[in-house]
Amino acid sequence: MPAMMRIALTTHSVNPRGGVVHALELASALVDEGHDVTLFAPAARGETFFRESPCRVILATIEGSQYDTVALVDARLRALKTSVKACDPRSFDVLHAQDSISGNALAELTAEGEIAGFVRTVHHLDHFDNPRLATWQTRAWQDADRVLCVSEMWTRVMRATYGVEAATVPNGVDLKRYSTRRTKHDDMVRQRLGLQNGAPVVLAVGGIEARKNTLGLLDAFAELVKRRPDAHLVVAGGASLLDHNAYTRAFMERVAGLGLTRAVTITGPLDDADVPALFRCADVLAMVSLREGFGLVVLEALACGTPVVASKIAPFTEYLDHSLCCWATPTDTASIANALERVIDGRHRTDFNHAVPALLNRMSWQASARKHLDIYSALLASRSLPTL
């Protein structure tokens, strides 16, 4: 491994999404390992990352109007490509894309001979009816020199469905940012959201999306309210580039139809400092997704001392067990409602004394960075081999 690598990480947004958090945390850990890291991201004029980074950050200014998802993706792709190209891209030892948008920018630069190739992390893949979006998604991993996945499940999918031999490099958790230490900020967040002391708070993070099963969670919460009338559901986050408007409208109509308007709070994107505080205000994190790449917020919640109800599906089953979460069947309303109630009333107890610390110590960003560096080194070595 070179004493110091020049590494370019690219991501699709400055907003707090899992892949963006991964890029920021990986960048920080790579800097701590002694490497020179530049993080590229597209941004509208005046936008900045939701969190500061210790590495060099280059924001690629998005030009033109984005009147639909295709135009939005294209504008971000163009901005990233222009920005990376302007920074002497061949001076980087490794260029690593965290998503389909930035992966296409690097794929185009590779095709044009501007860079030798790139690494791509697949967090998860979506289904797109639009053929251009589908083509972009495929090209972003198909043209990569090396594909990484954040879970064994997606590594298996890439192998079985697409014939790609990917490497699994899990996420980590920042134990300085996420901890059980309560602060005055916790009380401020509780008051701002109107959360009553003693009333059970169910928290969902990631916004209102079909993939997150937010409607299924709402139906389960409605069942919970029959037994715990003071319960409150908080749905936080939701800074997505994809169009979830129809699903969100259906969710809000269901909230009104169930008479839960005063029991459900939708926060939208939050300030970064609010997130650990919100975890500590919650009695349970509901992570009942139908499909996930990894589920980073599970680690963050556990680090804050918040119990988790999780879908009994991969990737959660790869790193969680009964001592770390309360399982639920995501397609079964009663199963989710019962799991939430079991956590809230104490019938299911998470092992915060032994199992949780062991998990969090194993899932560090430092360990993730070192595994990335091994993969980068192997890629560089393969490029230096003589060709016949």
UniProtKB/TrEMBL annotation:
Pfam families: Glyco_transf_4, Glycos_transf_1. GO terms for biological process: lipopolysaccharide biosynthetic process. GO terms for molecular function: glycosyltransferase activity. It comes from the Bacteria. Residues 190-347 form the Glycosyl transferase family domain. Keywords: Transferase. InterPro entries: Glyco_trans_1 (IPR001296), Glyco_trans_4-like_N (IPR028098), GlycosylTfrase_MSMEG0565 (IPR023986). Transmembrane segments: none annotated. Gene3D superfamilies: Glycogen Phosphorylase B (3.40.50.2000). CDD domains: GT4_PimA-like (cd03801). PANTHER family: GLYCOSYLTRANSFERASE WBBK-RELATED. This is Glycosyl transferase family 1. It comes from Caballeronia mineralivorans PML1(12).
